[in-house]
Specification:
Length: 176
Amino acid sequence: MKETFRSLFGIILVFSLFGLFACFSSEDASKQEKWDIKKQRIENKALDFTLEDLNGNTVKLSSYTGQGVLLVFGTTWCPYCRKEIPQLKELYAKYKEKGFEILNIDIQESKEKVSAYANEHKLPYKVLLDMDGRVASMYGVRGVPTKILINKDGTILCVACRSIDIMLDLLFDAPT
């Protein structure tokens, strides 16, 4: 009985101390810096890779240093991938003259299937084949579509980007 009481007392003590610590360690909300989505960054260097495009050319990510790059991991069977094509085309048209490139990375599908898909949707940007899923694995892709925005220095700005237009405005329209 005493051991049960001691165990129960120990558990209560641990939770009480944890609660007390949490109360005193949190900063006053008025002293915290205002959160701004435009300032959010991942700031890890993008991992370099080499893949083949639909024309059989070798494409290396590091060859795009000095340009903003959006990696779009997807598949031909993904309805959400198809749904975002108009937005990607619009972003590509708006920023390509400023040094923006989209690399659409298709994961583990045949060249024939991906080529037919790219032609059907008239994709104006490069389509790469990640036949074995190695690059998707390197970048921790867990679902499609997954978008990763990389700045001109090769630093990842966002993963699973939702507000790409805001990030691109900052990347290309910000005064230098």
